Structure formats: C-alpha cells, structure tokens
Amino acid sequence: MSEPLTNGSATDLQFSATPLQWKAIEFPPASNTITAILAGPGCGKTRTLILRCLHMMSIGIQPHEILVLSMTNSAARHLKSELRKVLSRETLQQTDTEVVGAVESLPPSEIEYIISNMNILTFDSFAGQIIAADRGSPMKILDPSYYDDIMYLTSSSRQTGRNHTASVRSRIDKWPLDARDHVIETALNKLRDTEGLATFAWIRYRTLQLLSTKFSSVVGVGRYRVLMIDEFQDLYGDLLRMVELVAVEDRGLHLTVVGDADQSIYGFLGSIDTDKKLKQVEQKSGRQLQQIVLNESFRSTGEIIKFSNQLTSTKLVNYHQDGNDDLPVSHESFSSALERADFVAREIKRLLRQSIITSLSNVLVLTRTNRPTSLMESFNFYGIKFHKRQSSVPGWMSGSISLIHYLQVLANPQEFEFSMICVMMSISGMSRPSMDVVQRKFEAWQKTKPGKAASTLWEYLIDPSTKHSSKKVIRFIETTNHWRDRIQGGGKDGAKLNNPQDLFNALLQYIADLDSARRIISTNLLVSGTARDELEKFYLGLKDASVVREAKLQEMSQNQSNEMNNVLGEEASVMRDEPEVPDLIDWFVEGYNERLYKDSSQRLGKEGVPDDAVQVSTIHAAKGLQSPVVFVLADTTYASLASKQKHELSLQEPSSPRSMYQRGSKIKRHWDEEEVRVHYVATTRAQKKLYFCELHDQFVRIGGSSQYIENPLEMKNRSTPGFPNKIASGDQLQNARKRMYSSWHRPMGRYNFGGSMRFVGRVLRVVLK
Ligand SMILES: Nc1ncnc2c1ncn2[C@@H]1O[C@H](COP(=O)(O)OP(=O)(O)OP(=O)(O)O)[C@@H](O)[C@H]1O
C-alpha cells in the first residue's frame, strides 16, 4: 500500500451526494410528515442530516428555527464539528454519477452565525434550557448514582462536617424498595428546593410535565420549525416522550429522524426496537412516515464491512470502493489486558515506523468499559501518548481500586465511616455476614450508651469494654492503629509523614498488612492491568498535593517573616506560632473531593483531541466517529456475564436511581444481542484497518505470565520518580495468584468495591449553563 492512511480522502472533499442521499436531503420538511433516514454505519447519515439542515436554510428556514438533538455530549460535539467542516469546504464539484448539492462556500462570519444559531444540543441540555426558562435560573446537576452523597448533602451531619452516610445507607438498604425510594425522593426534593440541585431524571420529568401541560408558555420551544433527531435507534423512555411532545401535530413542526437499528446499544436503559419506536412516534404525532434507506457505505473497506456483517449477520452489501487496497482485518487474541495493551502500543509504533500512518490521531482505540480505557490512557511504554476521549462518566479517578478509602481511614476513621467499612470488607476472609455481625453488635452497644447515640463505629471498635470475637477485626484495629501512629507522628522519632513517598509507602504497607493486597492490588493488576495505573495516579496525586502544600507553607512563612520584620521587630518572632497548614494526609484527603469535582467539570468542558495522541474511548462514547485505524479491545465475556443477570427495566419515569430496576416490569432484554451490536458499532468505526483484539481468557493463567512482560508487578516504573518499582512481595503475589480463581466471583455485598469510589466525593456536576 503506497499512500498513508489519513482522515481525509478525495471523495471527502467534495459535496457529492448519492441520488438516495440527495432525496433524503431534499425531502420537503412539511409539518405533517416524519422523514426517517435509516442506514447502516458509514452510509452518510450524519452528513445527510447536516446537508439537509443546510438545504432547509436555502429554502428559507432560519438557523435558529432548527433544533438538532443528540443523545450524548460527544455526539453533539461531533455534529457541530462536522457542520463546521461542511460549511468551510471550498468548492463544489460535479461528478458523472452523483448529484451535487448546491451549498456555496461561506465567509467565516456567516459560518459562525449558523453554528452559533443552530441549536445542536443533547436532550439533557435541551431539557435544562426549558427548566431554566421556566424558573428563571439554571439548575445544577446531581448525579443520582451518588446517592450516599445525596444523603450527606441533606443530612444534618453536614453542618458538623461528619459523615454519617454509612449508617444511613446500611439502615435504608434493609428497607423495602418502595420505602427506600421514598426516602431518596424526599432527600432529592429537599436538595432541589434548597440548593437548586436536581438529577437528570427530575429535569427530564419536569420538562415532560411542562411540555405536556403548558407547552405554549414554555419559552423558546415554539420557535422551532424543524426537529432533527440523531441516533434515533437509541432513544429510550423519557427522551422518546420528549420528542413526541415537541412534535405533536398542531405545532407545525417538521420531524426528521436518523438512525440504524443495528447500532442500537441503549437497550440497557430501556430503548426499544427501532421500527416499533418509529410507529409509535408516527401514531402519537399523527404524521405520515417517509422512510429513506441509504445503502452504500462510504467509510470502511470491504474487508471491514464483511467482518462487521459477520458479527451481526446483517447484509450491508454495498460499500464504496475508493481505490485503496483492502487490508486484512486482524483478529487477535490475548491472555491478559496488559499483554493486549502492549500489543496495541507496539503495533501503533510499527504503523508509524513503516509510515502506514503519519499521525497518532489517525488511530482510535475502543473499549467496552472504562476500565481498559484508563489502562490505555496511562500506558506509555513506547512513548506513544493516549488521549482518553471525554465520556459522560465524571470522576477524578474512575479507578477500580479505592485507595482513598485506606487513606481516609488512616486520616480519620471516625469521620470516614463508610470508607472504614469498605476497608474492613476488603480484608481477606472478612465476609459480608461477619461485617453484619459487627454492625449488629455496634447497634446493640450504642443502645447501652444512651448519652452517646451518635457514637461512631470506630469508637465502638476501640472501646476497651468491647469483646471482639473475630480475629480479622482485631487485626484491622491493631494494624490501623499502628499505621495511624506511624503516619500521625506518634512513632518513635515523633516525625510526621509529610513526604509523599513515605506516606505512599506507608499506605501500601498498611494495605499489605491488612492482607487486602489480594483484592486491591494483585487481582486487579493481574486480571486487568489497571491497578498499577491507579496506584501510580494516586501517587502522582499525592505528590501534587505535597507540592501545593509546600508552596503554601513557604508562602505563609514568607508572609510571616515579612510581617515580623516590618511590624513587630525581631524579638517577636520567638512568640509566633508555626504557620498552620494541615499535614499532607489531611491536606490530600480534604482536597480530594474538591479536586474530584473540579477535574470532572474541567473534563466535561474539554473538547479537542491533541494531534499527537492516539484517541482512546469507550464504544458508547465513540458513536458516529470514524478513524483510519481502529483497535477494538473486545470484551466478549461481558455478553455472557450480562445475560446471566437478566435485568428487567421499566420505562417509567424514575423517581430514584433504583426504581429503574423495579421488579415486575415488562421489558426483557437479550443482552447478548446488544453486546454484539456494541461490538458492531466499534468495528464499523474503522475506515482502513481494523484490529479486533479479544481476551481469550478473561483470567490470567495461574502462574503464567505475559510473553511480553515477565512480572507485571516489577515492571520498570514509567518515569514516575519515587514510585516504588516493587509493589508487593513475591510470596504475596504467588498467594494472590493462587487465590484468584476461587475469589473472583465472590460477591462484595452492598459494599461493592468498584463502585464505592463514587461515594467518596460529592460529585456535583454543573453542566447546564
Ligand atoms: N456521498 C458521499 N460521497 C463521499 N463521501 C461520503 C458520502 N456520504 C458519506 N460520505 C462519507 O462517509 C463517511 C461516513 O459518513 P457519516 O459519518 O455521515 O455516516 P453515518 O451513516 O452517520 O455513520 P454512523 O452510523 O456510523 O454514524 C464520512 O467520511 C462521509 O464524509
């Protein structure tokens, strides 16, 4: 193959449209019709949608009268950038076989005018605008999955700065579902009234209410003459209802929807069959359906299309040949995620060396979940930079391990009770029933101390009168006390551990002494390769905190000495106290929530992708994208695991996160099929070269190691000075490996470790402006 694989091809530069695309572009936007543009991946749906908007403008519809709604921020950004690209193209060319659209190249000011006046929004921003117009000010978003934080925010303990959410949570977890929902709902209502905080679910719900009861007074909505829906196949419950309400017959609004049933991947949120959905909208809005099916794919080579078709058994027969030789699809299999990551990096290096690609931005790495995404992001063995595309998941560390819990316990086990429970649960052999016993005894103990109703679990544990029957609990107390003493300066030399390296080592040692290493270090690292990254990120966070703290200390002592010299004279210096800056551990723990919040809002705002980086994304966040080279890090076991759970979803408006999973609801999903479609979406992002990389065994071979990396725990550290080369000792590692199989499926009870990271911080995302 002679030419390098790049993003732009010759056909891309001209505004040609196939006759079918042209028909879709031109179909009159009458208010009594719905135009449904259906097509497989790469057939030009997005492009047609944009050209259709421009065509409408050419027949007199104003940019601000057009509303384009998409499911995700990422899709909305993609649409905007495509619109900008289309608008800034220079000349139009006529070809023999294709009809050419008459869109003139526009001066920059006009391009800006169109882009800023045409509303390309996510459903949630659209709903947010309606709410803001209704109440006169925007609302802040509260992620409903942080429901411990919701409790925290509404509880009286907030004023005292204490965190009682663990006990609240453990109590309400025992209640029937309805009662629980009621409590959460009450808390949410309170937050809405007092703090202007609302969940997306509520904002959608309220929007639906406003649209159905007082549509005419909903500011702004009446001005739209055209509504375009991108990725229609993915619309679920309330979003679909929103479309129906905005598009009801008598409002003179035209509706165009664009979609592909084979790319439907939101069944897990209740999205139903595409045809059924179309019929539903047709009936509810009383319109006539005009369906146009595009059948020629312009994106991928024949090899890629064939491979993708095999996945879903669909027949997208036509693909547009642009003269490039077809490269074979590489179907690879690996025994560990780390080995796979290593392959990806080396392969990219090779593509660069052999000039098959000229820029790292021509490569897209797609993963099923966030976990391997984080792994790739911090994988830089071969000097290749990976840039994680912003998905909707917030969080400073979406890591699989919750190191912060351990540090919080070391900082203050009274304040961070929930963390303490998580830490106790992570101790090898400490099961859910034994934790329940502790909890029950604690409650009984509290009753014997009438004056001390608010006594904490830690106070109970260290109370000399408490008789512990479990050796694990005793060990937890002793180990925690020992390392708290060491860190807090109660050690022999009386020094505080304010050096990030010492503190980090102490933290790791604490974890190892608790015998939690199996769960948080070895298991994660060996299975998915991410634990090391999380450790490293954590270490870097600690270092950052230390740098800021040092600067603060210096600044304070500088101020102080200036002040002393100027005002008080030298003698006074003796009387002065040392500046008060918290110790590193407290500084870090305190700043953690703040950073979590700041970072997630910064990340939400971030747009562009650096040129010198490989893009890494989850498949869900990569909808609509394309790239010359795509590596799909397939997760084929996900399908069978998911199918076992057989979630049942309800389409009712959720009053709380959990009511989404009510029993007795009608819709059952076949998860395996959806998983196949997810992978289909992934493979069809590739234009020229596709790598389908599976893990043939989701579990690492016991005792074996990757052919590339001898011992993952003793890998060279990635140019992070101070980060320990060796994380756990050989024996621990061997034992961890042996125990891995037996422990992998052990349920973590309600204190799910992976998810518990969420409860650490109050993650309030302010996304509505
Ligand atoms: N008529 C055409 N001539 C040349 N290129 C085209 C034509 N139609 C579409 N393309 C190109 O094909 C690629 C895929 O188009 P587009 O992203 O619009 O497809 P899509 O149907 O939206 O795909 P997906 O379903 O994956 O989102 C783009 O690079 C686009 O420029």
From TrEMBL:
Domain UvrD-like helicase C-terminal residue range list: 295-624
Reactions the enzyme catalyzes: Couples ATP hydrolysis with the unwinding of duplex DNA by translocating in the 3'-5' direction; ATP + H2O = ADP + phosphate + H(+)
InterPro entries xrefs: DNA_helicase_UvrD-like_C, DNA_helicase_UvrD/REP, P-loop_NTPase, UvrD-like_ATP-bd
Ranges for domain UvrD-like helicase ATP-binding: 18-301
Binding site for ATP: 39-46
One annotated Gene Ontology cellular component of this protein: nucleus
Enzyme Commission code(s) on record: 5.6.2.4
GO biological process: recombinational repair
Domain of life of the native organism: Eukaryota
Enzyme class, first EC level, given as a word: isomerase
The name this protein goes by in its record: DNA 3'-5' helicase
Species per Swiss-Prot/TrEMBL record: Saccharomycopsis crataegensis
Higher taxonomy: Eukaryota, Fungi, Dikarya, Ascomycota, Saccharomycotina
